[in-house]
Recover the amino acids of this structure.
């Protein structure tokens, strides 16, 4: 039996704020409550973000099965009518498991939703065909699980509100997989999704050692490196990638080097304020998406670009 509650979960703070802000907006308009799930021993950062209740589950967020158990425990207490889950790698693993075990409806890549308290139904609009279409789903009365990508909703923290914390009793069967090795992400400045300038690396970059040159350009412009999926998943040069199944960014400038421009990748960078592309193939699909394009060998163009930047003392406006 569902209650008048919207439950929110995401392990990434920025996306968590976006989802929680949207949940508060809906809840305020129909008189519902908002609950959130926090993992780990310290959830103090969550209790002032606007939820009425924070469910605390002391589990390892690297283990999808344990996370699923914690979310099931939270759902059992909150009995949510809507369960918003961040469309991260973890979220896309656990959301379908939740839907199957709870016997509820599930929709992925949600870009908007509405709740009808009278009919006890939820309507969700979902992205199709990498953003070229939108499908509308209306769920039967009961809970609906919705996954939402970063940047869909606007974050608006509510620091004046303090939530009650409820500690979950989480029990789960031993994991069915053996973790051989953890590879932590290298320490860096701002998160990739928050970077104001991103240099986007594609398969035109020949060997891993060449990343040093591209990193030097990113450092010169106070930017960060991102990449297309093959660079991360096939070559294992990066822990994550940009695209439909990866991170979505919206920097001031995205400079792509050696990126062909597959639509799955474009989904991750299309919200950039400005896209500039460097590619040797004048017919590359990336040029149809870029604001500026340079048909050139990146190994000749990038050193010349860095020399010009240094000679003219160019730097982004946000640099001190």
């Amino acid at each position: 039996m569902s209650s008048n509650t919207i439950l929110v979960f995401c392990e990434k703070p920025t996306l968590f704020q976006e989802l929680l802000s949207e949940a508060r907006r809906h809840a305020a308009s129909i008189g519902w409550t908002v609950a959130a799930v926090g993992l780990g021993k310290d959830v103090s950062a969550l209790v002032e973000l606007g939820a009425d209740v924070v469910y605390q589950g002391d589990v390892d967020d690297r283990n999808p099965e344990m996370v699923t158990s914690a979310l099931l425990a939270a759902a059992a207490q909150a009995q949510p009518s809507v369960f918003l889950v961040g469309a991260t790698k973890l979220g896309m693993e656990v959301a379908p498991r939740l839907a199957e075990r709870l016997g509820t409806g599930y929709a992925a890549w949600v870009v908007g939703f509405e709740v009808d308290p009278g009919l006890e139904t939820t309507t969700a609009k979902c992205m199709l065909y990498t953003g070229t279409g939108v499908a509308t789903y209306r769920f039967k009365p009961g809970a609906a699980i919705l996954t939402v990508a970063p940047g869909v909703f606007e974050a608006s923290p509510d620091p004046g509100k303090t939530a009650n914390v409820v500690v979950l009793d989480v029990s789960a069967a031993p994991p069915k997989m053996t973790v051989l090795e953890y590879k932590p992400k290298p320490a860096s400045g701002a998160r990739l999704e928050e970077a104001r300038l991103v240099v986007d690396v594609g398969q035109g970059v020949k060997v891993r050692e060449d990343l040093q040159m591209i990193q030097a350009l990113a450092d010169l412009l106070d930017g960060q490196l991102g990449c297309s999926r093959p660079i991360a998943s096939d070559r294992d040069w990066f822990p994550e990638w940009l695209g439909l199944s990866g991170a979505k960014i919206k920097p001031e400038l995205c400079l792509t080097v050696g990126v062909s421009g597959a639509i799955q990748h474009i989904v991750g960078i299309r919200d950039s304020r400005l896209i500039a592309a460097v590619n040797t193939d004048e017919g590359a699909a990336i040029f149809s998406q870029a604001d500026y394009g340079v048909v050139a060998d990146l190994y000749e163009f990038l050193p010349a670009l860095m020399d010009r930047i240094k000679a003219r003392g160019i730097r982004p406006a946000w640099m001190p």
Remarks:
- The chain has two domains: 5-167, 192-312.
- DSSP finds seven helices and 15 strands in the chain.
- The domain at 192-312 is CATH 3.40.50.1220 (Rossmann fold).
